């Protein structure tokens, strides 16, 4: 069953957006694919989940206790997760599907399907190509092509693989009192992305930041789409 109307969750964090969509995660096994440094994995563990984060650019860790749950990080690529079939209750991609190389995106969705139990859910949160962050960041980190590819992959490969699909919309509030705070976040991303500090600090970027600040103040809301897929296909 496809639900055509988006459910608007308003302004919320990516963790709370996930929880609003899937409910309590206490005791659930969750795979966080494209986990980066593990912020989402840690946040879900805080709510009681047992989370394993996978990313090709991190170093594997032991289990870490967080709140009533726990999490660990494992070095792995999205289309080859080293776990048995039907190992997880939930698989999440949070701002990460568009980072999977194009030829591997379809395989990443198939791998998520393999990892899920029959009652499991696949949650994919992707930033939209809109809002003040997009307008400023595209000067040094233009993800237009890969974000469009991620959405096309969901349509072509995730939607046909599940019985049910729900779509949620929310905005995450990012606050920047000045350009230096905006630049600091951008510079932190150079570890995982193909741009330089000099590109972040370019005069054109400063100009666009000033333009958006004049309109939005210090609130640079980031619009996000969250697709939740669940249920085996009939027959």
The proportion of residues forming helix, as a percent range, comes to: 25-40%
What is the makeup of the main sheet? 9 strands, mixed
CATH class of the domain at 7-128 and 143-170 and 225-230: Alpha Beta
* Largest sheet strand order: 1-8-9-7-6-2-3-5-4
Task: Note down, in words, how this protein is organized.
By secondary structure, the protein is an alpha/beta fold. 34% of the residues lie in helices and 29% in strands. Helix 3 crosses helix 5 (144-158). It starts with 6 loop residues before the first strand and ends in a 5-residue tail after the last strand. The model has no long low-confidence stretch (mean pLDDT 94).
Features:
single chain, about 240 residues, alpha/beta, Rossmann fold, nine-stranded mixed sheet, 8 helices, 9 strands, about 35% helix
Task: Give the arrangement of secondary structure elements.
Layout: E1 7-11, H1 14-22, E2 29-33, H2 39-46, E3 50-55, E4 64-66, E5 69-75, E6 88-94, H3 102-115, E7 116-127, H4 131-137, H5 144-158, E8 164-175, H6 179-188, H7 197-200, H8 203-216, E9 219-230
Parallel strand pairs: 1-8, 2-3, 2-6, 3-5, 6-7
Antiparallel strand pairs: 4-5, 7-9, 8-9
Helix pairs in contact: 3-5, 4-8
């Amino acid at each position: 069953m496809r639900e055509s109307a988006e459910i608007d969750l308003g302004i919320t964090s990516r963790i709370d957006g996930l929880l609003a969509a899937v409910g309590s995660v206490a005791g659930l096994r969750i795979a966080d694919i494209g986990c980066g440094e593990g912020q989402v994995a840690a946040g879900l563990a805080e709510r009681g989940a047992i989370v394993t984060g996978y990313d090709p650019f991190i170093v594997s860790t032991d289990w870490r206790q967080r709140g009533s749950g726990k999490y660990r990080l494992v070095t792995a690529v999205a289309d080859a997760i080293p776990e048995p079939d039907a190992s997880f209750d939930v698989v999440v991609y949070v701002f990460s599907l568009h980072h999977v190389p194009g030829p591997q995106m379809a395989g990443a969705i198939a791998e998520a399907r393999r990892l899920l139990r029959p009652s499991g859910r696949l949650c994919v949160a992707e930033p939209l190509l809109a809002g003040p962050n997009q307008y400023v960041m595209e000067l040094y980190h233009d993800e237009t092509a890969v974000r469009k590819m991620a959405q096309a992959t969901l349509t072509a490969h995730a939607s046909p693989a599940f019985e049910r699909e729900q779509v949620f919309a929310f905005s995450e509030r990012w606050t920047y009192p000045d350009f230096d705070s905006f630049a600091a976040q951008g510079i932190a991303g150079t570890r995982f992305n193909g741009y330089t500090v000099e590109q972040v600090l370019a005069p054109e970027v400063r100009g666009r930041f000033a333009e958006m600040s004049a309109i939005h103040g210090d609130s640079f809301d980031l619009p996000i789409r969250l697709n939740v897929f669940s249920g085996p296909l009939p027959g």
